[in-house]
Amino acid sequence: MQDVAKTRTSAPGLRERKKQATRRAIAEAAVRLAAEHGVENVTVEAISEAAGVSPRTFFNYFPSHDDAFVLVDEEVGERIRESVRRAPADRPPLDVVRDALVTELDGFEARQELWELQCRVLQRSPHLVHRGLKAHVTEERALAAALTDWLEATERGPREPSGTDVFPRLLAAVAQTALRVAVEHWCDHPGENVLADTFQEVFAQLAQGLPRPPA
């Protein structure tokens, strides 16, 4: 059996960190400009100028104008998937996903303003919702693939053929939905608690099987 917990993915090198910082700067500039002026009034040239890059550099990171308003911190998804693949074999699957996600939520409050601005931009620009949904589905499928890798690497006996393909997809979908619910609740109640705590509460209810809440 492969020991998925014994090694840890090395930190990205200087070049990769610079690329990640550039991508974040472009996305943040796009969201801030769109929140102030509206997506339809923000050009690639304006975004590039605000981010301190050329329009050519913009298209090295985003395939189109609209993508810059939707895709923020794309590298987070890969870190989550790597955390899943490294998880110990004896961890319950739901805990594996929760732990991978909650690690990325630490310090999330520092970027709360940007996420709130992005939510505002998406609400004002319905045509971006479909693009955001497509990105969400892509991330969900990638997470399901990582869960499949972890399950196969940590299995200790013969696999049951029934339902083996459905389980990781269902778990990934449930986890992504739990994250969305936690973020929306946290944004709707600013200052009440940190996002990581809200997320833990959401997952605790999932772990209990979603019983009827007390009156």
Parts with pLDDT < 50 across at least 5 consecutive residues: 1-9
Query: What does the radius of gyration come to?
Result: 19 Å
Helix content: 55-70%
For the record, give the distance between the C-alpha atoms at the N and C termini, rounded to a whole number: 48 Å
Strand content: under 5%
Shape: globular
Decide which structural class fits the backbone.
mainly alpha
Instruction: Please give the CATH architecture of the domain at 69-207.
Output: Orthogonal Bundle
- The CATH topology of the domain at 69-207 is what? Tetracycline Repressor, domain 2
Enumerate how many helices there are, as a single number: 9
Mean pLDDT: 82
Largest sheet: none
Provide the CATH superfamily of the domain at 69-207: Tetracycline Repressor, domain 2
Secondary-structure element string: HHHHHHHHH
Counting DSSP E segments of at least 2 residues, the number of strands comes to 0
CATH top level assignment of the domain at 69-207: Mainly Alpha
Structural write-up:
The protein is mainly α and 215 residues long. It has a domain at 69-207: Tetracycline Repressor, domain 2. The protein has 9 helices and no strands. The longest helix is centred in the middle third of the chain and has 29 residues, at 126-154. The chain is globular, with a radius of gyration of 19 Å.
Which labels suit this protein?
about 220 residues, disordered N terminus, 9 helices, Tetracycline Repressor, domain 2, globular, mainly alpha
In a nutshell, what does this entry contain?
By secondary structure, this protein is mainly α.
